[in-house]
Amino acid sequence: MTDRTGAAAPALRSARSTPETAAKEGPHGLGAASANGSRRSWWRSRNALGYGFIAGPLVFMVVVLLVPIAYNAWVSLHDWSLVGTTPPRFIGLDNYLEIVQTPRWRGTLLRTAVYVIVTVSVQVVAGFLIALLLHQHFPRAKVARMLLLLPMMISEVVVGNIWRLLLNYNGGLINWFLGLFGIEPVFWLGPEHAFQSILMVDIWQNVPFVTLVLFAALQTLPSELLEAAAIDGANRWHQVRSVIVPMIQPAFLLVLMFQTMFAIRSFSTIWLLTEGGPGDRTSLLAIDVFRAALQSYDIGLGAALSWCLLLLSLGITVLYIRWLKRDPLV
Amino acid sequence: MKTRRAKMHALAASVVGTLLLASCSAGGSSEGDGTNSAPAGGGEPVTLLLPSGNFERTTLPMLEDFTAETGIEVEPIAMPAEDARSRQILDLTSQTGELDLILMDGMTWLTQVYEHLEPLDEPAEADAEYLRPLLDMFTIDGERYASPLGVSIRPLIYRADIFEEAGLEPPTTFEEFYDTAAQLTSGDVYGFVGPYGRATSHVSIWTVLAYNNGVEILDEAGEKAAFNTEAGVEALETMAALYRDHLMPVDSIEMAHDGTLVAMQEGRGAMTILPTSFFLSLNEEGSGPHAGDFRIAPLPVGPDGDEPQSLATGWGFGLSKYSENKENARKLLAYLDERTIDPAPDADTEQLVRPVSDAGFQHPGTQEIFPDGQIDLLEESLSSARTLPETPLWDDIQNALGEEFQRAYLGEISAADAIANGEKRVNEILAGS
Which DSSP string do the residues of B39-105 spell out, in sequence order? Predict the structure, then answer.
């Protein structure tokens, strides 16, 4: 009986050999066996099947992600309005120069930077403290954890509407509450407090995510380490600083990266609360992208602004990843 | 070998899955490519967008009646007005033909999209029935692109009970406007409430006040700003002084139309400037403790102005050049013309609050909404109404002015500086085009 995988194969391979390869292979077809072996090893070493599996999704990603991004870059080099009769005009980097040179856009970039730094810092610190608290054993701990995660589960649109009602100057719940103590109503979404208000709402909504990730990281810490530190005389603060924080550093970097990207792209909640106003006091990069592209229909400028958004996110992500790679624990 | 075959099957399944995923993501585009299943008897459905809210409530019953009478299906998609506008512009500029009818808000939207629309047949029989200025609102270079479905003006809306108690008459000049607001501001009631939070609202108010002070916004060619005059500054200063001097609620700076409406319903303001379409929501029974107390009056006139003028804005449907269902779409337009010109005896009050024809003004329902001769004031105002400047760049201009004006309301810069900054930015926008 012929071995289906072995014995009949050389004959087949010989039949497929070209005169040139046959000459190289020699009279006994040994070269053919060796070439076949190398093909096989190529197939195996390169994990061709694996590549086959990812080829489809890769093509899909190129079509739905990279092509639009590249097209967006092309659009950003044009003076291109969706309305009116003027055809698109190639202007090189003028849109980018306008963003850098115009005080209004510079203000937006600065405001976005402040927003990102403040929200991410507070979220990480508050999230870590809450995670430490949740890590303790206390009655109804599970209920407390669930309640603390609630803001993360609410959609941004709902969050925006809830906070709009809460912060309403006339009849909002917070001002009503302050009124009980004889405090004058505060115009939370007015010119003086609008920026702080959107910071507060963003922090409120995103702290649970940080808490969740850091709490999960804390759960993986071997208790022996902390016990050993305690025996060595480390107090709680020293344990946190010298044992816990270094051990869960990868988790910190992860939340820093995610929260920074979320903060740079913040849009829905702010739009619902203030629409970027009053004036431009709460106008961040994502709000201006929307305004330029879908309110003024200046898609050239909108595309350039969205590239700034992308480059900022990308730059920070690369920095974090580099930092992450330097960590010996990763 | 079996393992290998299993792997190949898995690979094939992966490829098929990916293709399916890809086709799902592209699924939206097949909607308007003429592959819709046609309803029995009526041919292709007519697709259109509607702004959510009052206009949607008024229009939907008419669309249902149209389907019942003709068998032609209509597919209305309701969404917030701003979203509808973006979606329409994207649909027209990419020439998908997904939407058969295009909704337009007076001059602003029309100037942006008219090159993508079919001009309507002229002269249509129905045209004689419409108020002429309202037809002009949808006409560019002699071609009409839509019929007015519902038009509003922005009059002065005031609380008659407060005015009566104070022994005051509605103000007729800028000066009287400020003085009246000052006299009526007391405790929780402010002399004036205005939508100073959204550029589309407060720049429109300034525009009509500027018209009433003899100011043109753009020059005749529409190539330069023409509003940086003493009269233009005066119109803005009138608005800014009201906020700066606390004759308006502090949260007016974040209010849009709906916020202003609620403030008036709650009794926080004695006067406001809102489109007449909101008048019903103020006076309708059950709408608030002061329902029935609201009246309309002409807007005050500035020292350089002549007669009070009004600013007309409204909705109308145009026909997409890329529609593959033009015949049915035209039938629907004709039907809507008919229903709008001559409202049914039991027509919805939301429709009657925006009359566009003589028959509409004579309708008992309309007379009831605007009692005591106010209907004559409305008709007169509509007959001589003006529109926003005819430029496709109005959105950009409006946003730029809105930002500068808000700074003036907040006292960061003077009205003169806001107007000067606005002029600079508007000229840049116009030059860039």
Answer: PTTT-SPEEEEEETTHHHHHHHHHHHHHHHHH---EEEEEE-HHHHHHHHHHHHHTT----SEEEEE
For residue B2, which residues of chain A lie inside 8 Å, CB to CB? Answer: none
Cross-chain residue pair B93–A82, CB shorter than 8 Å: yes
CB contact under 8 A, A295 and B433: no
Given a contact cutoff of 8 angstroms between Cβ atoms, the answer to whether A268 and A160 are in contact is yes
Q: Residue B71 above 80 pLDDT?
A: yes
Are the CB atoms for A276 and A291 separated by under 8 Å?
Answer: yes
From A60-69, A132-141, B96-105, the region with the lowest mean pLDDT: A132-141
A274: CB partners within 8 A, 6+ apart: A189, A194, A197, A198, A281, A282, B254
Q: Return d(Cα A247, Cα B381) in angstroms, integer.
A: 74
3-class SS letters over A139-181: CCHHHHHHHHHHHHHCCHHHHHHHHHHHHCCCCCHHHHHHHHC
B433·A81 Cβ contact <8 A: yes
Residue A18 has pLDDT above 90, yes or no: no
Q: Which two tokens stand for residue B50?
A: 């509607």
Contact A307, A76 (CB under 8 A): yes
End-to-end CA distance of chain B: 68
Confidence of residue A329 (pLDDT cuts 50, 70, 90): low
Sequence-separated contacts (24+) of A316-320 with Cβ below 8 Å: A316/A257, A316/A260, A316/A261, A316/A264, A317/A257, A317/A260, A317/A261, A320/A253, A320/A256, A320/A257, A320/A260
Q: What is the structure's pLDDT at B297?
A: 93
Of the residues B93, B243, B253, the best mutation for testing chain A's interface (the one with the most A CB atoms within 10 Å of its CB) is: B253
* B110 phi/psi in degrees, rounded to 5: -60, -45
- A177 to chain B, closest Cα gap in Å: 18
Average pLDDT over residues B197-211: 94
> How near does any CA of chain B get to the CA of A279, in Å?
5
Q: Which of A278-282, B90-94, B355-359 has the lowest mean pLDDT?
A: B355-359
The pLDDT of residue A102: 86
| Structural domains of chain A, ranges and CATH numbers in brackets | 104-326 (1.10.3720.10)
Smallest Cα–Cα separation from B273: which of B211, B355, B322? B211
- The alpha-carbon gap from A262 to the nearest alpha carbon of chain B, in Å, equals 24
- CA-nearest residue of chain B to A169? B251
The pLDDT mean for chain B works out to 85
pTM passes above 0.95: no
B118 in Cβ contact with B326 (< 8 Å): yes
Sign, CA dihedral B277-B282-B285-B287, equals positive
Nearest CB to B433; choose among A84, A169, A278: A84
Do A273 and A238 meet the contact criterion of CB atoms below 8 Å apart?
A: no
What pLDDT is attached to residue B110? 86
* Interchain CB distance below 8 Å, B254 and A53: no
Query: Look-up: residue for tokens 């403290």?
Result: A129
Contact A330, A250 (CB under 8 A): yes
Assign B206 a pLDDT band (cuts: 50, 70, 90). Answer: very high
Q: Is B186's pLDDT higher than 80?
A: yes
Mean pLDDT to the nearest integer, B57-70: 89
Residue count (chain A)? 330
Identify the pLDDT of residue B16.
Answer: 55
A296 inside 8 A of chain B by CB? yes
Q: Which of B260, B254, B195, B194 is nearest to A274 (CA)?
A: B254
- Reported as a single tens digit per residue, the pLDDT across A78-112 is 999 888 777 899 999 999 999 988 888 889 999 99
Question: Is the ipTM, as predicted for this complex, more than 0.85?
Answer: no
